[in-house]
Specification:
The chain is mainly alpha-helical. 32% of the residues lie in helices and 7% in strands. The chain contains 7 helices and 3 strands. It has helices at 2-6, 20-23, 70-76, 78-82, 127-136, 151-162, 164-189, and strands at residues 14-17, 56-61, 115-119. A 3-stranded antiparallel beta sheet has the order 1-2-3, with no helix packed on it. Helix 5 (127-136) crosses helix 7 (164-189) and helix 6 packs across helix 7 (164-189).
Length: 217
């Protein structure tokens, strides 16, 4: 807080600390220093124990200067962003919790010197998307320790052991989602299930190999 209030750096530091609980000897839980709201349900990454990826951060933010300063954003883009269909804006006061749904673009501006805690989790409703991301986008998976070489295999093994029924349900949902994407693609390129590849003369490529558009959870 002292740095935030008194620094004169041209590009102030932005603290994003994933180890703050351990460094500050905090207790997380209903009788601890803070706790995630129970309404979000269980976090399925908890099955990984100490091998789970980073999921909570302490944020101490001075003004961000890259790629745009907050001042420049407010002057030039804020009014335009408000016109975007579905745009929502509000104020989160001290002690309140704001849930940002998966895949929602968002921006946070501190109206006064503030410290915040943010935390990610995998609820049951997003298990299929999480499984697909871990399996199909391993190069984009981050936050795991160096001892975890295959996050997907580790997670599925622990999940199958701890919640076998939920694991099978997640795989079935993932298969359903993938089938739906395939059907949309077939409709786009003109493939008819009964007649075969009706649009077989159509094709394109960029010479970059397979580049599916699987959604990121």
């Amino acid at each position: 807080m002292e740095y935030m209030s008194n620094n004169e750096d041209e590009s102030p530091l932005y603290l994003f600390d994933s180890s703050f609980v351990e460094k500050m000897n905090l207790k997380v839980g209903s009788v601890g220093d803070y706790w995630p709201p129970e309404c979000f349900g269980k976090d399925l990454f908890d099955v990984l124990g100490d091998q789970r990826p980073d999921r909570r951060w302490l944020i101490d933010q001075s003004e961000v200067t890259s790629p745009l300063s907050i001042t420049e954003w407010l002057l030039n883009f804020h009014a335009e962003a408000r016109k975007t269909p579905g745009c929502m804006e509000g104020i989160c006061n001290e002690g309140e919790v704001l849930h940002v749904p998966s895949k929602w673009w968002h921006l946070v501006i501190n109206l006064s010197p503030s410290i915040a805690i943010t935390q990610n989790f995998i609820p049951e409703a997003h298990l299929a998307n999480a499984l697909g991301f871990l399996r199909d986008r391993p190069q984009q998976v981050s936050g795991f320790g160096n001892d975890v070489e295959d996050p997907y295999s580790l997670f599925t093994a622990r999940l199958r052991k701890t919640y076998p029924a939920l694991f099978e349900k997640g795989l079935s949902e993932l298969e359903r989602l993938e089938l739906g994407k395939k059907r949309k693609w077939d409709e786009l390129v003109g493939v008819n299930g009964e007649e075969g590849a009706r649009g077989k003369d159509f094709g394109f490529g960029f010479g970059l190999g397979d580049d599916d558009d699987a959604e990121v959870p």
